[in-house]
Each structure stands twice: as structure tokens, then as C-alpha cells.
Write a structure and sequence with these properties.
There is one protein chain. The chain has helices at 45-60, 82-90, 118-121, 137-145, 150-162, 165-172, 192-204, 215-224, 236-248, 259-271, 274-283, 323-330, 353-359, 375-383, and strands at 4-5, 22-24, 65-67, 69-71, 77-80, 105-107, 181-185, 188-191, 230-232, 299-303, 318-322, 334-336, 343-345. The protein has 386 residues and is an alpha+beta fold. It folds into 3 domains: 4-127, no CATH class; 131-232, no CATH class; 281-383, no CATH class. The strands form 5 sheets. A 4-stranded mixed sheet has the order 1-4-5-2. Strands 8-7-9 form a 3-stranded antiparallel sheet, with helices on both faces. A two-stranded antiparallel ribbon has the order 3-6. Helix 6 crosses helix 7 and helix 9 (236-248) packs across helix 10.
Length: 386
């Protein structure tokens, strides 16, 4: 029997008193369509959960095929329940296989092409009838977290990174973006509710409404999984500018945006990506690594090696610098000697009052050595000094 590898672990089965709709793997030949069990439609919670899981399998495999036998990422091996497969065919979720042939794969009905199962695809949460009745924040947080592991959150972050904002909002079942609370995953920030809903859907197939719980409940749920770093921004205009900036990756000053929007985006771009800048603010105690300036609005996240994607947003590849020092550093007019930490000044600006002041300054490293700037990267910048 062919065994298909899935990239996620066995999902949590939340329906008490009912057997999970997967069977222990049998090495015998898969059944034919004539050997399937029940072929009548079913609206039972167990069946809804099963149909949510086969959709998740198909998505994980990048198509519309559902394997009969499969191995989860944690090594556990199962095969589909024959009765649930029969009911899924009757429900219009799976296509009727060719008669007489062993079923190694089943074809999932496209919800875009055939409306019979479209409504069922977004009703998996009805398999948990107690959930909407939960009133306290802690209980709702536990419902959100159930079945999610860190890999689901990271997968949700990748999905948000790679898809257009409108596609992300549609997948999460919402028309709005976050305005104040963001979850930090890696070096980037994501709307807390949206990443929570998507991670839940990837983990269990359950489609939670973003209105199911408040933002605090989603943050509590994600913190219980190990993601407890949160960024809050009260300035909605700055949030919008940051979101668009991180999606676009650059700014075009010739576009039709008004002067205020361009100014906001320019500030955001110079400050650096939010999570990267926040990490540097923590590492350097909120002070410029050269001048000691402690005015947050004047501090920017500078890359030592050029920004080439999220992997370069690492604290060891950054310095927290006052805006004017950052500009000089980006223009290769100053650099830092990694051995003495002394500021080195380009010959093109040497001799002036400010340049003489700079020569007397030294680069301050973070108290936590793990956050120290990369020595080789600093050395390369010194070689590139004009």
C-alpha cells in the first residue's frame, strides 16, 4: 500500500465520546468503491471534522488529491475511515472513484467549481458546539490553541508573507487588518487575530471567525504555544504605512500618494522593519550604539550587510543608530573598526568639525553578547569605507 507523507503532526481530535475518523494503517490492498461503508449524507460533528481534515491534507499536498494511507510528521500512520469516505462522497466533498479499482487517492471536489460542498468547507467550527458558548477569555484562548503547534504558526506566517493582503484576509474570513496588536514570529510582525485564525485552520481545518474572541484571547492562545512577543502600535496611520511598506518592499516617491503618506512611509522605511528595530532597541537599551542618544523617534535600525530578505533582519546584522549616523553609515562615509570599535571616517568628509567629533566616538556593544554585531560584517564594511 502506498503511504503518503504529510508535513504536519496528527491534529488534536476535540470531539469527546466519538472515535477519531482515521483507522490504524493496514498493509493490505486499499478498498474499492464497492467496499466503502455508509454512502448517505451526514451532518454529524465527527463527519464535519473528517471533511475539514481531508481538505487540509489536499492543501498540504498542493492539489486536490486525498491519500488513502498517510504518515503524519510525527511518524504516526493511518488510513481513512471507510464509512466517513462514503459519507463525504454522498455529501459532495469527494468525487466517486472509478468502480472496481483500489482507492489509493480520492479527488476533492473544488468548492469554487461545485457549490454543494462550499458551505461545508467553512462550517468546520460547528463540530465544536460548545465553543461559541464560552464566555471567558481563558476558555476561548484554550479553544483557539487546541491542535496548534509552533510549525502551524510559522506556516501561517509564511502564508501571510507570500500572499496578497486581500487573499490573506479572505482566507482568514475577515475584511479588516490589525491596527494595534501584532504577534512577532521570527523577525517580523503579523496581525494577532489573522495569524491565529490561519494557524488554527492549518492545524485542524476549523475556520474560526475573528469575532470568536477578542485580541487578548488570541494573544493568550499563541503565547501558550510559545509565541509571546507582541508589538503594539497606537498610531493607525503608522501601522498602515508599515504594513504597506513591508508588503511592497520599497517606496516610489513618484506615485500618486499625498505628501503626508509619502512622509510617513519614508519614516517607516528609514526606521527599519518594526520587529527588527524593536529587537535592536532592546539589545542596545534604547540608545544609539555610537552617540548614546536615547530619543526613540530619532533612532533607526541599520543593517551592517545589505538587506536581502527576512533572514538578514538578524540582531547580529544590525546596529541601532541615530538617524544622521545611520545615513553616514549607509553612504559608506563612516565605518567601525571591529578590533578597537573606533569610528573610522571617510577621507571625503575628514577635516570638518563634525568629522573630528566622530573620530573620538566608539561603537558600544550590547550587554548581551549574543546580540553583538557580526565582526566579519563590520570588517567588510570597514574595507568598503570610501
Amino acid at each position: 500500500m502506498k503511504l503518503t507523507q504529510l508535513s504536519y503532526p496528527v491534529p488534536d481530535y476535540p470531539i469527546e465520546g466519538k472515535k477519531i475518523p482515521f483507522s490504524q494503517l493496514k498493509r493490505s490492498q486499499p478498498p474499492t468503491v464497492d467496499q466503502l461503508g455508509k454512502t448517505l449524507p451526514s451532518q454529524e460533528d465527527r463527519q464535519l471534522w473528517f471533511e475539514a481534515q481531508i481538505r487540509l491534507m489536499a492543501a498540504d499536498l498542493g492539489g486536490n488529491r486525498v491519500p488513502w494511507a498517510f504518515r503524519f510528521a510525527d511518524g504516526k500512520e493511518f488510513q481513512l475511515d471507510k464509512g466517513c469516505v462514503g459519507m463525504a462522497i454522498a455529501n459532495g466533498v469527494l468525487r466517486l472513484p472509478q468502480s472496481g479499482q483500489p482507492i489509493e487517492f480520492l479527488e476533492l471536489v473544488s468548492t469554487r467549481q461545485e457549490g454543494q460542498s462550499a458551505d461545508r468547507a467553512i462550517r468546520a467550527h460547528r463540530a465544536f458546539p460548545a465553543a461559541p458558548l464560552l464566555s471567558d477569555e481563558g476558555s476561548r484562548a484554550r479553544v483557539i490553541a487546541r491542535g496548534i503547534v509552533p510549525d502551524h504558526v510559522r506556516a501561517a506566517a509564511t502564508f501571510i508573507d507570500e500572499k496578497p493582503i486581500e487573499v490573506v484576509k479572505e482566507y482568514a474570513g475577515t475584511s479588516s487588518w490589525a491596527k494595534d496588536a501584532f504577534l512577532v514570529v521570527g523577525t517580523r510582525r503579523y496581525p494577532a487575530k489573522i495569524i491565529g485564525v490561519i494557524a488554527k485552520r492549518m492545524a485542524t481545518g476549523e475556520v474560526l471567525d475573528t469575532g470568536f474572541a477578542n485580541t487578548r484571547a488570541f494573544l493568550r492562545a499563541l503565547a501558550s504555544i510559545g509565541f509571546d512577543e507582541v508589538v503594539r502600535e497606537n498610531n493607525a496611520e503608522v501601522v498602515d504605512a508599515e504594513t504597506q511598506a513591508e508588503r511592497d518592499g520599497h517606496f516610489d516617491p513618484s506615485d500618486s500618494a499625498d505628501a503626508r503618506e509619502r512622509a510617513l512611509r519614508s519614516i517607516v522605511q528609514r526606521r527599519g522593519r518594526t520587529t527588527f528595530r524593536n529587537a535592536l532597541l532592546r539589545a542596545y537599551g534604547g540608545c544609539c550604539a555610537v552617540t548614546g542618544c536615547d530619543l526613540p523617534d530619532a533612532l533607526e535600525a541599520a543593517h551592517i550587510a545589505p538587506y536581502l530578505g527576512g533572514h538578514t533582519d538578524d540582531v547580529s546584522n544590525g546596529l541601532l543608530l541615530r538617524a544622521d549616523i545611520h545615513t553616514l553609515f549607509d553612504l559608506h562615509l563612516i565605518a567601525f573598526d571591529p578590533d578597537t570599535r573606533q569610528v573610522r571616517v571617510s577621507a571625503t568628509i575628514a577635516g570638518g568639525f563634525f568629522a573630528d567629533k566622530l573620530k573620538k566616538l566608539r561603537l558600544r556593544f550590547p550587554k548581551d553578547r549574543r546580540c553583538n554585531p557580526n565582526i566579519e560584517a563590520l570588517r567588510k564594511r570597514l574595507v568598503e569605507l570610501k
